[in-house]
Design goal:
By secondary structure, this protein is mainly alpha-helical. The chain has three domains: 42 residues; 65 residues, Type II secretion system (T2SS), domain F (Receptor-associated Protein), CATH 1.20.81.30; 255 residues, Type II secretion system (T2SS), domain F (Receptor-associated Protein, Up-down Bundle). 74% of the residues lie in helices and 5% in strands. The chain contains 16 helices and three strands. The radius of gyration is 28 Å and the shape is elongated. The protein starts with a strand and ends with a helix. The relative contact order is 0.09.
Length: 403
């Protein structure tokens, strides 16, 4: 009989890890259900375990597909359609093949009597802790349709942020690629043909022309060195990323970048406040909500700080007082959190803070891209101008000698 390793949540929200002997995963889920545990991950010992990404709720399915599925499910649940029939209907009209197969397995577990949260928890590659915990809270409170609507809204908003970032970076990246391609073409194809003329004349060349010729020779003869370093850096970086120490140093460095660091901080704060506010408004206990929020945040520096906040809150401290001790949580967030705790509107204040930081991030991104575009054009023009000057100066000198 194979042995299965599982990760689950107890009724109090505590994380439980253990092993069970069973004939199949289905029996493992049944045994965990009898113990009152909510499965998070189940895999056979010795099998390859999938490593999910922690950046977003979805795992291998786009946020657009997942948000559409969530909103459709919320509509059907609000219309009092039985859960099994609703999932069956969504399975039939789902166009994404990956999500369709996932819904097949989820629907089979629901047919066996599992709750929706338990059925989704068995698919950790597609439904993260945040998603499952909010669904479980919605089931417990009897407001599953409302929670699903909030989830769909959140996923759509996160997809909009991602789309804005991608759209803003598309033009600079294209400019860098085109400019780099033009420079490589000039240095490896055009310049070597023109250099022959200068070498035959045996005239003294300007310093800028000599430097360009040397660089062209270096690029043509030793191109394999930077290419090899670039190729070798990929597996080395992936290996280093598996260590927590390296990831912590990388995340610390990212936060210290002159302009991008501040923008990244606003994006992290927006995600922290929105996810935490969303979990609390859905009925998730604050300790569990802080734990989930820490897993959602990809920055290790903020994760470590949030772990300390969670310990202080668990010991009876207030959230605002714990955040105030951490310098990376700005006064605005601390103040809104304190106001929310005093007035009993913590989740609304957190959502408001998340919206404010998201707007700040969008404004900063728009301003940065607006400044970057002319600088890229100027830089590209300057680089091409240097090449043209290095070529034309010897030609002018040769004409003077002929006259």
């Amino acid at each position: 009989m194979p042995t299965y390793r599982y990760k689950a949540y107890s009724a109090t929200g505590a994380s439980v890890v253990g092993t069970l002997d069973a004939d199949s995963e289905r029996q493992v889920f049944q045994q965990l259900k009898l113990k009152g545990l909510l499965p998070r991950e189940v895999h056979e010992e010795g099998a390859t375990e999938a490593v999910p990404s922690s950046f977003s709720f979805q795992r291998g399915v786009s946020a657009a597909d997942l948000s559409l599925f969530t909103r459709r499910l919320a509509t059907l649940v609000a219309s009092s359609v039985p859960l099994f029939e609703a999932m069956g209907s969504l399975h039939e009209q789902e166009e994404n093949d990956v999500l369709k197969r996932v819904l097949t397995r989820v629907n089979a577990r629901i047919a066996e009597g599992a709750a929706l949260s338990r059925a989704l928890a068995a698919e950790p590659r597609f439904f993260g802790d945040s998603y499952v915990s909010m669904v479980a809270a919605g089931e417990a409170s009897g407001a599953l349709d409302v929670v699903l609507e909030r989830l769909a809204d959140f996923l759509e908003e996160q997809e909009q942020v991602r789309s804005r970032v991608v759209s803003a970076l598309a033009y600079p990246i294209l400019m860098i690629l085109v400019g780099g391609g033009v420079m490589v073409f000039l240095l490896t194809v055009v310049i070597p043909k023109i250099v022959v003329i200068f070498e035959d004349s045996k005239a003294a060349l300007p310093l800028i022309t000599i430097a360009l010729i040397k660089f062209s020779h270096l690029l043509r003869n030793l191109w394999w060195i930077p290419a090899g370093m670039a190729i070798a850096s990929v597996p080395l970086y992936r290996t280093a990323m598996k260590t927590d120490a390296f990831r912590l140093r990388r995340d610390t460095l990212l936060l210290r970048l002159p302009v991008a660091g501040g923008m990244l901080q606003r994006l992290i704060l927006s995600r922290f406040a929105r996810v935490l506010g969303l979990l609390l408004s859905s009925g998730v206990p604050i300790i569990r909500a802080l734990d989930i929020t820490g897993e959602v945040l990809v920055n290790r520096v903020y994760r470590a700080m949030l772990h300390g906040v969670m310990e202080e809150v668990a010991q009876g401290g207030s959230l605002s007082a714990s955040l105030r001790k951490r310098p990376l949580f700005p006064p605005l967030l601390v103040h809104l959190t304190g106001v929310g705790e005093a007035g009993g509107t913590l989740e609304q204040m957190l959502l408001r803070a998340g919206t404010a930081y998201e707007r700040e991030f969008s404004t900063s991104l728009t301003r940065l891209m607006g400044l970057m575009e002319p600088f890229l054009v100027l830089g590209m023009g300057l680089a091409v101008g240097i090449v043209v000057m290095a070529v034309l100066l010897p030609i002018f000198e040769m004409n003077q000698l002929i006259k």
